[in-house]
Amino acid sequence: MVRAFEKMVRRLTSDRKFSEILTGSIFAMAARAAAVAFAMLANIVIARFYGAQAMGILAMVNSFLFLITIFTVLGTGTSILRLIPEHIARHSVTSAFRVYRKTQYVVAAVSVVSGTAFFFASGIVADKVFSKPHLSFFFALAAGFVAFKSLMDLNSQAVRGLRLIRTFAFMQLLPSLAMLVVLIAGTLLFRHPNNPVYSQLAAYAVTAMVGALIMDHAFKKGMRTDDVVKPLAVPEILSMSMPMLMSASMYFFTSQTGVIMLGMFRTESEVGYYSVASKLANLTAFVLQAINTMAAPKFSELYHTDKMDELFHVARKSSKLIFWTTAPILITLVLLGRPLLGLFFGGDFIVAYVTLIMLAIGQLVNSISGSTGYFMNMTGHQNAFRNIMFCSALINIALSLALIPRFGMNGAAFAGMVSLASWNIYTLIYIRIKFGRTIGYVPLFWRSPAK
Q: Structure pTM?
Protein backbone atom coordinates (compact mmCIF):
# COMPACT_ATOMS: atom_id res chain seq x y z
CA MET A 1 0.00 0.00 0.00
CA VAL A 2 2.90 2.32 0.79
CA ARG A 3 4.41 1.60 -2.64
CA ALA A 4 1.09 2.34 -4.32
CA PHE A 5 0.90 5.69 -2.50
CA GLU A 6 4.49 6.54 -3.49
CA LYS A 7 3.69 5.65 -7.11
CA MET A 8 0.64 7.92 -7.06
CA VAL A 9 2.71 10.81 -5.65
CA ARG A 10 5.36 10.37 -8.36
CA ARG A 11 2.69 10.47 -11.06
CA LEU A 12 1.15 13.63 -9.67
CA THR A 13 4.47 15.45 -9.28
CA SER A 14 5.59 14.51 -12.80
CA ASP A 15 2.36 15.86 -14.35
CA ARG A 16 3.31 19.33 -15.61
CA LYS A 17 -0.32 20.36 -16.09
CA PHE A 18 -1.09 19.61 -12.45
CA SER A 19 2.23 20.50 -10.80
CA GLU A 20 1.25 24.14 -10.11
CA ILE A 21 -1.85 23.08 -8.19
CA LEU A 22 -0.04 20.27 -6.38
CA THR A 23 2.87 22.46 -5.26
CA GLY A 24 0.62 25.27 -4.08
CA SER A 25 -1.79 22.84 -2.44
CA ILE A 26 0.92 21.15 -0.40
CA PHE A 27 2.07 24.51 0.98
CA ALA A 28 -1.49 25.69 1.64
CA MET A 29 -2.38 22.32 3.15
CA ALA A 30 0.49 22.52 5.64
CA ALA A 31 -0.57 26.01 6.70
CA ARG A 32 -4.20 24.97 6.88
CA ALA A 33 -3.27 21.94 8.97
CA ALA A 34 -1.51 24.26 11.40
CA ALA A 35 -4.60 26.50 11.49
CA VAL A 36 -6.83 23.51 12.21
CA ALA A 37 -4.44 22.41 14.95
CA PHE A 38 -4.63 25.85 16.58
CA ALA A 39 -8.43 25.81 16.28
CA MET A 40 -8.65 22.35 17.83
CA LEU A 41 -6.38 23.44 20.69
CA ALA A 42 -8.71 26.39 21.28
CA ASN A 43 -11.70 24.02 21.29
CA ILE A 44 -9.96 21.76 23.78
CA VAL A 45 -9.22 24.71 26.06
CA ILE A 46 -12.87 25.78 25.86
CA ALA A 47 -14.18 22.27 26.50
CA ARG A 48 -11.80 21.66 29.42
CA PHE A 49 -11.93 25.04 31.16
CA TYR A 50 -15.33 26.48 30.15
CA GLY A 51 -17.49 23.41 29.42
CA ALA A 52 -19.98 22.23 26.81
CA GLN A 53 -22.33 25.14 27.48
CA ALA A 54 -19.66 27.70 26.56
CA MET A 55 -18.87 25.66 23.45
CA GLY A 56 -22.54 25.72 22.50
CA ILE A 57 -22.87 29.49 23.03
CA LEU A 58 -19.81 30.10 20.86
CA ALA A 59 -21.22 27.82 18.13
CA MET A 60 -24.53 29.72 18.11
CA VAL A 61 -22.81 33.11 18.03
CA ASN A 62 -20.62 31.96 15.14
CA SER A 63 -23.63 30.63 13.24
CA PHE A 64 -25.45 33.93 13.81
CA LEU A 65 -22.42 35.87 12.55
CA PHE A 66 -21.85 33.56 9.58
CA LEU A 67 -25.48 33.93 8.54
CA ILE A 68 -25.33 37.73 8.56
CA THR A 69 -22.00 37.94 6.73
CA ILE A 70 -23.17 35.63 3.96
CA PHE A 71 -25.64 38.33 2.96
CA THR A 72 -23.34 41.28 3.66
CA VAL A 73 -20.59 39.83 1.44
CA LEU A 74 -23.31 39.49 -1.26
CA GLY A 75 -21.67 36.50 -2.94
CA THR A 76 -18.66 38.62 -3.91
CA GLY A 77 -16.30 36.32 -2.02
CA THR A 78 -16.78 33.78 -4.81
CA SER A 79 -17.19 36.16 -7.73
CA ILE A 80 -14.00 38.05 -6.84
CA LEU A 81 -12.16 34.72 -6.94
CA ARG A 82 -13.30 34.41 -10.55
CA LEU A 83 -13.01 38.08 -11.57
CA ILE A 84 -9.46 38.78 -10.38
CA PRO A 85 -7.70 36.05 -12.43
CA GLU A 86 -10.04 36.78 -15.36
CA HIS A 87 -9.15 40.51 -15.40
CA ILE A 88 -5.45 39.86 -14.90
CA ALA A 89 -5.43 37.35 -17.78
CA ARG A 90 -7.47 39.52 -20.16
CA HIS A 91 -6.63 43.07 -19.08
CA SER A 92 -4.24 44.00 -16.23
CA VAL A 93 -3.54 44.00 -12.50
CA THR A 94 -4.92 47.54 -12.27
CA SER A 95 -8.19 46.39 -13.85
CA ALA A 96 -8.45 43.61 -11.27
CA PHE A 97 -7.67 46.07 -8.46
CA ARG A 98 -10.46 48.43 -9.55
CA VAL A 99 -12.95 45.55 -9.41
CA TYR A 100 -11.68 44.54 -5.97
CA ARG A 101 -11.84 48.09 -4.61
CA LYS A 102 -15.42 48.64 -5.77
CA THR A 103 -16.41 45.34 -4.23
CA GLN A 104 -14.68 46.21 -0.97
CA TYR A 105 -16.55 49.51 -0.65
CA VAL A 106 -19.92 47.87 -1.32
CA VAL A 107 -19.31 45.09 1.21
CA ALA A 108 -18.14 47.57 3.87
CA ALA A 109 -21.21 49.80 3.43
CA VAL A 110 -23.69 46.91 3.52
CA SER A 111 -21.92 45.39 6.53
CA VAL A 112 -22.13 48.57 8.60
CA VAL A 113 -25.84 49.01 7.89
CA SER A 114 -26.64 45.34 8.53
CA GLY A 115 -24.55 45.19 11.70
CA THR A 116 -26.36 48.22 13.11
CA ALA A 117 -29.76 46.73 12.31
CA PHE A 118 -28.93 43.39 13.94
CA PHE A 119 -27.46 45.13 16.98
CA PHE A 120 -30.88 46.60 17.76
CA ALA A 121 -32.63 43.34 16.81
CA SER A 122 -30.38 41.13 18.97
CA GLY A 123 -32.99 40.76 21.69
CA ILE A 124 -35.59 39.57 19.19
CA VAL A 125 -33.15 37.03 17.70
CA ALA A 126 -32.24 35.64 21.12
CA ASP A 127 -35.85 35.46 22.36
CA LYS A 128 -37.94 34.63 19.29
CA VAL A 129 -35.50 32.53 17.22
CA PHE A 130 -33.48 30.67 19.84
CA SER A 131 -35.88 31.02 22.79
CA LYS A 132 -32.88 32.01 24.91
CA PRO A 133 -33.23 35.70 25.93
CA HIS A 134 -30.05 35.48 28.02
CA LEU A 135 -28.03 35.26 24.78
CA SER A 136 -29.08 38.72 23.55
CA PHE A 137 -25.83 40.27 24.83
CA PHE A 138 -23.74 37.88 22.72
CA PHE A 139 -25.74 38.52 19.55
CA ALA A 140 -25.53 42.29 20.06
CA LEU A 141 -21.78 42.00 20.54
CA ALA A 142 -21.38 39.85 17.43
CA ALA A 143 -23.38 42.37 15.36
CA GLY A 144 -20.68 44.94 16.10
CA PHE A 145 -18.12 42.72 14.35
CA VAL A 146 -20.10 42.07 11.14
CA ALA A 147 -17.97 44.48 9.09
CA PHE A 148 -14.73 42.86 10.30
CA LYS A 149 -15.95 39.34 9.48
CA SER A 150 -17.25 40.40 6.04
CA LEU A 151 -14.02 42.12 5.01
CA MET A 152 -11.99 39.21 6.37
CA ASP A 153 -13.91 36.80 4.12
CA LEU A 154 -13.62 39.05 1.06
CA ASN A 155 -9.88 39.64 1.48
CA SER A 156 -9.20 35.92 1.95
CA GLN A 157 -10.81 35.14 -1.40
CA ALA A 158 -9.14 38.08 -3.16
CA VAL A 159 -5.73 36.80 -2.06
CA ARG A 160 -6.58 33.44 -3.61
CA GLY A 161 -7.51 35.19 -6.84
CA LEU A 162 -4.02 36.70 -6.94
CA ARG A 163 -2.54 33.23 -6.26
CA LEU A 164 -0.56 34.56 -3.32
CA ILE A 165 -0.44 31.15 -1.71
CA ARG A 166 1.89 31.99 1.15
CA THR A 167 -0.11 35.11 1.95
CA PHE A 168 -3.36 33.16 1.78
CA ALA A 169 -1.87 30.52 4.06
CA PHE A 170 -0.92 33.20 6.57
CA MET A 171 -4.43 34.71 6.46
CA GLN A 172 -5.93 31.26 7.02
CA LEU A 173 -3.62 30.72 9.96
CA LEU A 174 -4.14 34.11 11.58
CA PRO A 175 -7.77 33.80 12.88
CA SER A 176 -7.22 30.52 14.73
CA LEU A 177 -3.80 31.57 16.01
CA ALA A 178 -5.07 34.95 17.21
CA MET A 179 -8.04 33.31 18.94
CA LEU A 180 -5.85 30.75 20.67
CA VAL A 181 -3.41 33.40 21.92
CA VAL A 182 -6.17 35.68 23.23
CA LEU A 183 -8.04 32.73 24.76
CA ILE A 184 -5.01 31.38 26.61
CA ALA A 185 -4.07 34.85 27.84
CA GLY A 186 -7.62 35.46 29.04
CA THR A 187 -7.79 32.05 30.72
CA LEU A 188 -4.54 32.60 32.57
CA LEU A 189 -5.21 36.21 33.58
CA PHE A 190 -8.94 36.16 34.30
CA ARG A 191 -11.18 33.19 33.56
CA HIS A 192 -14.35 34.98 32.57
CA PRO A 193 -17.08 32.69 31.16
CA ASN A 194 -17.39 34.90 28.06
CA ASN A 195 -13.72 34.58 27.11
CA PRO A 196 -14.34 32.16 24.19
CA VAL A 197 -16.70 34.61 22.46
CA TYR A 198 -14.43 37.61 23.14
CA SER A 199 -11.43 35.72 21.74
CA GLN A 200 -13.22 34.70 18.56
CA LEU A 201 -14.46 38.21 17.79
CA ALA A 202 -11.04 39.71 18.49
CA ALA A 203 -9.48 37.24 16.05
CA TYR A 204 -11.89 38.32 13.28
CA ALA A 205 -11.01 41.99 13.84
CA VAL A 206 -7.26 41.37 13.73
CA THR A 207 -7.49 39.27 10.55
CA ALA A 208 -9.69 41.82 8.78
CA MET A 209 -7.32 44.73 9.45
CA VAL A 210 -4.18 42.80 8.54
CA GLY A 211 -5.85 41.44 5.40
CA ALA A 212 -6.82 44.91 4.16
CA LEU A 213 -3.21 46.11 4.47
CA ILE A 214 -1.91 43.00 2.70
CA MET A 215 -4.31 43.37 -0.23
CA ASP A 216 -3.42 47.01 -0.85
CA HIS A 217 0.29 46.19 -0.87
CA ALA A 218 -0.11 43.09 -3.07
CA PHE A 219 -2.15 44.84 -5.76
CA LYS A 220 -0.10 48.03 -5.88
CA LYS A 221 3.14 46.09 -6.21
CA GLY A 222 1.94 44.58 -9.51
CA MET A 223 0.24 47.65 -11.00
CA ARG A 224 1.75 49.61 -13.95
CA THR A 225 0.97 53.10 -15.23
CA ASP A 226 0.17 51.76 -18.74
CA ASP A 227 -2.18 49.02 -17.54
CA VAL A 228 -5.35 48.50 -19.59
CA VAL A 229 -8.44 48.88 -17.43
CA LYS A 230 -11.76 47.24 -18.24
CA PRO A 231 -14.44 49.13 -16.25
CA LEU A 232 -16.91 46.93 -14.42
CA ALA A 233 -19.88 48.67 -12.83
CA VAL A 234 -21.24 47.66 -9.44
CA PRO A 235 -24.51 46.33 -10.95
CA GLU A 236 -22.45 44.02 -13.21
CA ILE A 237 -20.47 42.71 -10.26
CA LEU A 238 -23.64 42.12 -8.27
CA SER A 239 -25.44 40.44 -11.18
CA MET A 240 -22.68 37.85 -11.24
CA SER A 241 -22.44 37.65 -7.46
CA MET A 242 -26.12 37.24 -6.58
CA PRO A 243 -26.45 33.61 -7.80
CA MET A 244 -23.26 32.88 -5.86
CA LEU A 245 -24.82 34.59 -2.84
CA MET A 246 -27.75 32.21 -3.09
CA SER A 247 -25.37 29.26 -3.38
CA ALA A 248 -23.38 30.48 -0.38
CA SER A 249 -26.51 31.02 1.69
CA MET A 250 -27.79 27.58 0.81
CA TYR A 251 -24.41 26.09 1.68
CA PHE A 252 -24.66 27.85 5.03
CA PHE A 253 -28.04 26.30 5.70
CA THR A 254 -26.76 22.84 4.77
CA SER A 255 -23.75 23.20 7.07
CA GLN A 256 -25.16 25.26 9.95
CA THR A 257 -28.79 24.15 10.15
CA GLY A 258 -27.84 21.57 12.77
CA VAL A 259 -26.36 24.19 15.10
CA ILE A 260 -29.20 26.67 14.60
CA MET A 261 -32.04 24.19 15.06
CA LEU A 262 -30.38 22.45 17.96
CA GLY A 263 -30.12 25.90 19.51
CA MET A 264 -33.84 26.35 18.93
CA PHE A 265 -35.02 22.98 20.27
CA ARG A 266 -32.28 21.68 22.60
CA THR A 267 -29.86 22.89 25.28
CA GLU A 268 -26.61 24.83 24.82
CA SER A 269 -24.69 21.76 26.02
CA GLU A 270 -26.09 19.56 23.25
CA VAL A 271 -25.19 22.25 20.73
CA GLY A 272 -21.68 22.09 22.18
CA TYR A 273 -21.47 18.31 21.75
CA TYR A 274 -22.69 18.58 18.15
CA SER A 275 -20.28 21.43 17.45
CA VAL A 276 -17.29 19.35 18.54
CA ALA A 277 -18.40 16.37 16.40
CA SER A 278 -18.91 18.66 13.43
CA LYS A 279 -15.48 20.23 13.80
CA LEU A 280 -13.82 16.82 13.97
CA ALA A 281 -15.69 15.61 10.88
CA ASN A 282 -14.73 18.82 9.11
CA LEU A 283 -11.03 18.17 9.65
CA THR A 284 -11.06 16.98 6.05
CA ALA A 285 -12.24 20.42 4.96
CA PHE A 286 -8.77 21.89 5.41
CA VAL A 287 -7.51 19.52 2.69
CA LEU A 288 -10.34 20.47 0.35
CA GLN A 289 -9.81 24.16 1.01
CA ALA A 290 -6.05 23.91 0.54
CA ILE A 291 -6.43 22.25 -2.85
CA ASN A 292 -9.18 24.67 -3.87
CA THR A 293 -6.80 27.51 -3.01
CA MET A 294 -5.00 26.74 -6.27
CA ALA A 295 -7.68 24.84 -8.17
CA ALA A 296 -10.47 27.45 -8.18
CA PRO A 297 -8.58 30.30 -9.90
CA LYS A 298 -7.01 27.74 -12.24
CA PHE A 299 -10.49 26.52 -13.22
CA SER A 300 -11.45 30.10 -14.06
CA GLU A 301 -8.29 30.70 -16.10
CA LEU A 302 -8.56 27.46 -18.13
CA TYR A 303 -12.29 27.81 -18.77
CA HIS A 304 -12.07 31.42 -19.93
CA THR A 305 -9.15 30.60 -22.25
CA ASP A 306 -11.13 27.65 -23.71
CA LYS A 307 -8.73 24.92 -22.57
CA MET A 308 -11.40 22.38 -21.76
CA ASP A 309 -9.29 19.22 -21.92
CA GLU A 310 -6.76 20.71 -19.54
CA LEU A 311 -9.58 21.97 -17.31
CA PHE A 312 -11.02 18.49 -16.80
CA HIS A 313 -7.55 16.98 -16.48
CA VAL A 314 -6.75 19.37 -13.62
CA ALA A 315 -10.20 18.97 -12.02
CA ARG A 316 -10.04 15.18 -11.98
CA LYS A 317 -6.49 15.11 -10.66
CA SER A 318 -7.60 17.53 -7.93
CA SER A 319 -10.42 15.14 -6.98
CA LYS A 320 -7.99 12.23 -6.79
CA LEU A 321 -5.66 14.19 -4.53
CA ILE A 322 -8.59 15.26 -2.31
CA PHE A 323 -9.75 11.67 -1.85
CA TRP A 324 -6.41 10.14 -0.95
CA THR A 325 -5.53 12.90 1.50
CA THR A 326 -8.91 12.94 3.28
CA ALA A 327 -9.66 9.19 3.40
CA PRO A 328 -7.08 8.44 6.17
CA ILE A 329 -8.56 11.22 8.34
CA LEU A 330 -12.11 9.90 7.94
CA ILE A 331 -11.05 6.29 8.63
CA THR A 332 -9.26 7.42 11.80
CA LEU A 333 -12.36 9.29 12.99
CA VAL A 334 -14.58 6.26 12.43
CA LEU A 335 -12.24 3.79 14.15
CA LEU A 336 -10.90 6.01 16.94
CA GLY A 337 -13.56 8.71 17.28
CA ARG A 338 -14.83 7.54 20.66
CA PRO A 339 -11.47 7.55 22.49
CA LEU A 340 -10.45 10.78 20.73
CA LEU A 341 -13.55 12.56 21.99
CA GLY A 342 -12.95 11.38 25.54
CA LEU A 343 -9.21 12.01 25.53
CA PHE A 344 -9.22 15.56 24.16
CA PHE A 345 -12.59 16.99 25.12
CA GLY A 346 -13.60 15.00 28.18
CA GLY A 347 -15.75 11.97 28.94
CA ASP A 348 -19.00 13.93 28.53
CA PHE A 349 -18.30 14.42 24.82
CA ILE A 350 -18.25 10.68 24.02
CA VAL A 351 -22.04 10.89 23.55
CA ALA A 352 -21.30 12.67 20.24
CA TYR A 353 -19.63 9.60 18.66
CA VAL A 354 -22.65 8.45 16.62
CA THR A 355 -23.11 12.04 15.47
CA LEU A 356 -19.46 12.10 14.40
CA ILE A 357 -19.85 8.90 12.35
CA MET A 358 -22.78 10.25 10.33
CA LEU A 359 -21.06 13.57 9.67
CA ALA A 360 -17.91 11.70 8.57
CA ILE A 361 -19.94 9.70 6.04
CA GLY A 362 -21.21 12.92 4.53
CA GLN A 363 -17.64 14.21 4.29
CA LEU A 364 -16.60 11.00 2.52
CA VAL A 365 -19.09 11.73 -0.28
CA ASN A 366 -17.78 15.29 -0.34
CA SER A 367 -14.20 14.10 -0.83
CA ILE A 368 -15.16 11.63 -3.58
CA SER A 369 -16.98 14.37 -5.48
CA GLY A 370 -14.05 16.81 -5.59
CA SER A 371 -14.29 20.59 -6.09
CA THR A 372 -17.84 20.53 -7.45
CA GLY A 373 -19.00 23.90 -6.16
CA TYR A 374 -15.97 25.85 -7.31
CA PHE A 375 -16.03 24.09 -10.68
CA MET A 376 -19.61 25.22 -11.24
CA ASN A 377 -19.00 28.80 -10.11
CA MET A 378 -15.72 29.23 -11.98
CA THR A 379 -17.18 27.94 -15.26
CA GLY A 380 -20.21 30.23 -15.35
CA HIS A 381 -22.78 27.72 -14.08
CA GLN A 382 -23.50 29.53 -10.83
CA ASN A 383 -27.25 29.65 -11.53
CA ALA A 384 -27.54 25.87 -11.81
CA PHE A 385 -25.42 25.41 -8.71
CA ARG A 386 -27.63 27.87 -6.84
CA ASN A 387 -30.69 25.77 -7.71
CA ILE A 388 -28.99 22.55 -6.60
CA MET A 389 -27.97 24.11 -3.30
CA PHE A 390 -31.48 25.47 -2.78
CA CYS A 391 -33.00 22.00 -3.12
CA SER A 392 -30.34 20.55 -0.82
CA ALA A 393 -31.02 23.23 1.81
CA LEU A 394 -34.74 22.45 1.71
CA ILE A 395 -33.97 18.77 2.28
CA ASN A 396 -31.76 19.65 5.24
CA ILE A 397 -34.31 21.98 6.83
CA ALA A 398 -37.18 19.51 6.35
CA LEU A 399 -35.23 16.60 7.82
CA SER A 400 -33.95 18.76 10.68
CA LEU A 401 -37.44 19.91 11.61
CA ALA A 402 -38.66 16.31 11.58
CA LEU A 403 -35.72 14.70 13.40
CA ILE A 404 -34.07 17.19 15.78
CA PRO A 405 -36.97 17.60 18.26
CA ARG A 406 -37.00 13.82 18.79
CA PHE A 407 -33.43 12.65 18.11
CA GLY A 408 -31.43 15.76 18.96
CA MET A 409 -27.88 15.96 17.63
CA ASN A 410 -28.13 12.57 15.90
CA GLY A 411 -31.11 13.83 13.94
CA ALA A 412 -29.15 16.95 13.03
CA ALA A 413 -26.21 14.83 11.89
CA PHE A 414 -28.40 12.58 9.72
CA ALA A 415 -29.99 15.61 8.05
CA GLY A 416 -26.56 17.16 7.44
CA MET A 417 -25.19 13.91 6.02
CA VAL A 418 -28.06 13.49 3.55
CA SER A 419 -27.93 17.13 2.51
CA LEU A 420 -24.15 17.20 1.95
CA ALA A 421 -24.23 13.98 -0.04
CA SER A 422 -27.21 15.06 -2.15
CA TRP A 423 -25.83 18.35 -3.45
CA ASN A 424 -22.49 16.79 -4.30
CA ILE A 425 -24.13 13.92 -6.21
CA TYR A 426 -26.57 16.24 -8.01
CA THR A 427 -23.71 18.51 -9.06
CA LEU A 428 -21.67 15.61 -10.42
CA ILE A 429 -24.68 14.47 -12.45
CA TYR A 430 -25.16 18.01 -13.82
CA ILE A 431 -21.50 18.27 -14.86
CA ARG A 432 -21.71 14.87 -16.55
CA ILE A 433 -24.83 15.87 -18.52
CA LYS A 434 -23.50 19.33 -19.42
CA PHE A 435 -19.95 18.42 -20.42
CA GLY A 436 -20.12 14.68 -21.06
CA ARG A 437 -17.35 14.21 -18.48
CA THR A 438 -17.05 13.97 -14.72
CA ILE A 439 -14.66 15.39 -12.13
CA GLY A 440 -15.40 12.89 -9.34
CA TYR A 441 -13.01 10.18 -8.15
CA VAL A 442 -14.03 6.70 -7.03
CA PRO A 443 -10.93 4.45 -6.77
CA LEU A 444 -12.44 1.27 -8.22
CA PHE A 445 -13.94 3.12 -11.18
CA TRP A 446 -11.13 5.62 -11.85
CA ARG A 447 -9.58 5.80 -15.29
CA SER A 448 -6.55 8.07 -15.54
CA PRO A 449 -7.23 11.00 -17.87
CA ALA A 450 -4.95 11.41 -20.81
CA LYS A 451 -2.03 13.74 -20.36
A: 0.66
